[in-house]
Amino acid sequence: MPWFTEKSDCISPQRLEELMRQTVAESRERICRNPRRVLLLPPDITRAHSGAGRMTEIVYHLLAQSAEVHVIPTLGQHIPHTPEQNRFMFGSIPEERIHPHDWRGGCVTLGEIPAELVKQTTGGAADWPIPVELNRMLMEESWDLIVHLGHVVPHEVLGFANHNKNYFIGVGGKEMICAAHMAAACYGIENNLGALVTPLRACFNQAEEQFLGRLPDVYVQLVLARNPQGELVHTGVFVGDDLETYLEAARLSRGQNITVLDEPLNKVVCVMQGDEFYSTWVANKAVYRTRMALADGGELLVLAPGLKRFGEQPEVDELIRKYGYCGTPAVMEAYRRDPQLRDFSHAAAHLIHGSSEGRFHITYAPGDMTREEIESVHFGYADLQQMLKRYPIDQLKEGFNTLPDGETIYFIPTPSAGLWSTRQRLYGRPSGFAE
């Protein structure tokens, strides 16, 4: 059971600070009364809107009064933050205490998730082992307390983000991230989204128990939702060191962050904020979170003022440019014959996730990419300034909007904060919905 929880229509910043103080006090009581070395594991800048960076800053200063405190943003394979991004995300935490995760050269291997378990949980969709590789600083240095801080929200790979995803993806190694993403992709993105325990999470739960049971850790799980004014506010804080802490947070997120529609949507317009989303690798959350709501033949328009690349690494960017979002059959054919794509199999998984499979149209209006670049990966292109004039985002409300010329759109200002689906696609899928 969680150590403590708080649920409200809106948890104020002052109350959030009090809850962080309670987290530190409970950690001292339950894990280590006088911690000397502390590690904080918050999300990266793609979750800046969650407020987890500010919570990390509060916890840092509470503990740094008497302990040596370090921070590793759970980047996974995302590009490390610049000092400016660290200041934006984590405020006054000293730069020298924030350490970039190196997913290629900075991990140690602990063992593996057996192929038999992967096959069993995915129903045979994947049948390979998943190596357990985690950040060297996390595993080899001595810690008296490890605090995870993160946003629980529907997710395309693990059903919901955060909890032990922080370990196995956030500070995971290359082979682990690649094998895990490919397993989730083969099981099916639309079977994963909004499920409390996906096959991959079931594997991670077992791996956490087997390999990480000795770690002195606690999870701070944040849930956000939109208030009647359309603002994202904190509605839940769940603090504890067990699986139920995650499950309670995910149940609240499932109730608040999933919009169920009776009919599919013909046109969706999304905004991927320019200070968080620089690549289609992360901006494609607009695709993931709306795909179950879009009508056959419908259109998704993504306004992405910060977009300047496809992948988070040069090799992955190259693979996306080479193959584009061409659909599962073409990606799997390329995967079988291209050793580079197999070496970066998380890129193959991403290409599958980011394709509409020819069912609906995806159009990007990027801030810093050309028409030729966007169209080369099988997306449509639109001019950002023209689209911002046509769809004035500061005047649109989330949900249905009718423009002066009569066009009706469904507007989503922060698609990464939720999941949209028709009732039939959510409840009628093979994986079901309620656990």
Sheet having the most strands: 6 strands, mixed
Broad structural category: alpha/beta
Question: Strand order within the widest sheet?
Answer: 1-10-9-6-2-3
How large is the count of helical segments?
19
The mean pLDDT is 96
Broad shape: globular
Roughly how much helix do the residues carry, as a percent range? Answer: 25-40%
In CATH, the topology of the largest domain is named Rossmann fold
Query: What is the highest CATH level, the class of the largest domain?
Result: Alpha Beta
Number of domains: 2
Report how far apart the termini are.
18 Å
Radius of gyration: 21 Å
The total strand number stands at 18
Please give the CATH architecture of the largest domain.
3-Layer(aba) Sandwich
How large a portion of the residues is in β-strands, by DSSP E? Answer: 15-25%
CATH superfamily of the largest domain: LarA, N-terminal domain
Q: In terms of per-residue confidence, which ranges show pLDDT below 50 for 5 or more consecutive residues?
A: none
What's the arrangement of secondary structure elements?
Blueprint: E1 4-7, H1 13-30, E2 37-41, H2 52-64, E3 68-71, H3 83-90, E4 107-113, H4 115-121, E5 130-135, H5 136-140, E6 145-151, E7 154-155, E8 159-160, H6 165-170, H7 174-187, H8 189-192, H9 199-211, E9 217-226, E10 232-240, H10 243-257, E11 258-261, E12 265-271, H11 280-283, H12 285-290, E13 294-304, H13 314-323, H14 328-337, H15 339-343, H16 345-353, E14 361-366, H17 371-376, E15 380-381, H18 384-390, E16 399-402, E17 408-412, E18 419-422, H19 423-427
Parallel strand pairs: 2-3, 2-6, 6-9, 11-18, 12-13, 12-17, 13-14, 14-15
Antiparallel strand pairs: 1-10, 4-5, 7-8, 9-10, 16-17
Helix pairs in contact: 1-2, 7-16, 14-16
